[in-house]
Structure formats: structure tokens, C-alpha cells
């Protein structure tokens, strides 16, 4: 059974193509036009164990907002599509990611009831050329379109690069655990309702 998907989204602001294989080896090919964002998505794929291709062309002459948010929308939608109704998975995942002085925690429920709790504070307004406020926009767009309840919290940390990167790695590791096949579900959705 292939748990993969390809999603294409085209608007006046962005043109995006994403393909993902949840059972990959962490290989990625990322091109968003934003160097630091590419680095974060490569880290997300590597630590999630997902094969991920992202090609985003956005209105970067205006700013990075549409590019980052819309990429989150499409990656979330691709994960949702690849999960095919969330049947047979563990559903829940969590991770603690230390990175030098920073520690970030992510707890995640693939519930089809999307939500984001964001308790992350940045010491600087930018990492490289990227506005740090856009990291919340990405995670919110991902959660809403994946159907995931995501709680992401940086417990402590000072370096904005470390805070951002530990967040992407924590999301990746929590998602990796949640999408694992659970033989005890016998291929059904892990819910007393019988469907998610």
C-alpha cells in the first residue's frame, strides 16, 4: 500500500506542487525561493522520514507571507490525502527536540479536528531573510489542512535559528510517530466513532 500523494495549488499569489511519500527515507527536493524555509522543510522531511518534493513559486516581490502560508496549506493537504482517512495509524505522536540551549515539544493528534496551540517566542524578528512570525503561519496552515491538532511549545531557548529548527524537527518527529501503522487498529480509524 502506497501512502503517497501529490497536490497542486495555483492562485494569483502562488503556484505550488507538493509530493510526499510517508513511508520514504527522508529524501527531499525543496524549492520555495526562501533559503531558510527550504532548510526547515528539508529538516522536516529528513526527521519525519518522508520523501518530500516541494516546488513553490510565490509573489516574493511583495513579501514571503503567501509563499510560506500556502506551502503549509499544500503540504498539510498532501499528508491528509496520503493518510486516506487516517485508517490504521497510531494517530498520536509527540517529540521533545533539544538544540543547544533550546528545547521544543510537539504533541500531535491526527484527529481530523484541526487546531494549533502555539507557545513559541522569538528573540529576533528575522532568521536570515525570513520573518519569524511566518513560522506560526506555516504551522497553522499545515495543521488546518492536514486535519491535525498540533500543540507546539518552546520550553526555553534564546537563538531564533534554534527555536525555529527545533520546532520543525519536533513537528516532524511527532508526525512520524502518529502516521506509523498500528497493527492493533486492524486497518480501522483509531477512534471509538469508527471514523475520523
UniProtKB/TrEMBL annotation:
Pathway: Amino-acid biosynthesis; L-histidine biosynthesis; L-histidine from 5-phospho-alpha-D-ribose 1-diphosphate: step 6/9
Catalyzed reaction equations: D-erythro-1-(imidazol-4-yl)glycerol 3-phosphate = 3-(imidazol-4-yl)-2-oxopropyl phosphate + H2O
UniProt keyword terms in alphabetical order: Amino-acid biosynthesis, Cytoplasm, Histidine biosynthesis, Lyase
Keyword Amino-acid biosynthesis among UniProt keywords: yes
Name of the top EC class for this enzyme: lyase
InterPro entries: IGPD_sf (IPR038494), ImidazoleglycerolP_deHydtase (IPR000807), ImidazoleglycerP_deHydtase_CS (IPR020565), Ribosomal_Su5_D2-typ_SF (IPR020568)
PROSITE patterns: IGP_DEHYDRATASE_1, IGP_DEHYDRATASE_2
Presence of the UniProt keyword Cytoplasm in the record: yes
Subcellular location per the Swiss-Prot or TrEMBL entry: Cytoplasm
MF annotations from Gene Ontology: imidazoleglycerol-phosphate dehydratase activity
E.C. number: 4.2.1.19
Classification via HAMAP family: HisB
Family recorded in the similarity comment: Belongs to the imidazoleglycerol-phosphate dehydratase family.
Name assigned to this protein: Imidazoleglycerol-phosphate dehydratase
Gene: hisB
Amino acid at each position: 500500500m502506497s501512502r503517497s500523494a501529490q497536490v497542486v495549488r495555483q492562485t494569483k499569489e502562488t503556484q505550488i506542487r507538493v509530493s510526499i511519500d510517508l513511508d520514504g527515507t527522508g529524501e527531499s527536493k525543496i524549492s520555495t525561493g526562501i533559503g531558510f524555509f527550504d532548510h526547515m522543510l528539508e529538516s522536516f522531511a529528513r526527521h519525519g522520514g518522508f520523501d518530500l518534493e516541494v516546488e513553490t513559486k510565490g509573489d516574493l516581490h511583495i513579501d514571503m507571507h503567501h509563499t510560506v502560508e500556502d506551502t503549509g496549506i499544500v503540504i498539510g493537504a498532501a499528508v491528509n490525502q496520503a493518510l486516506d482517512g487516517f485508517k490504521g495509524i497510531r494517530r498520536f505522536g509527540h517529540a521533545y527536540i533539544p538544540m543547544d540551549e533550546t528545547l521544543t515539544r510537539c504533541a500531535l493528534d491526527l484527529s481530523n479536528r484541526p487546531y494549533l496551540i502555539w507557545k513559541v517566542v522569538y528573540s529576533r524578528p528575522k532568521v536570515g531573510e525570513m520573518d519569524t512570525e511566518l513560522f506560526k503561519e506555516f504551522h497553522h496552515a499545515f495543521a488546518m489542512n492536514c486535519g491535525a491538532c498540533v500543540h507546539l511549545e518552546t520550553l526555553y531557548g534564546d537563538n531564533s535559528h534554534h527555536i525555529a529548527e527545533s520546532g520543525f524537527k519536533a513537528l516532524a518527529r511527532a508526525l512520524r510517530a502518529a502516521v506509523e501503522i498500528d497493527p492493533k487498529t486492524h486497518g480501522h480509524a483509531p477512534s471509538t466513532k469508527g471514523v475520523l
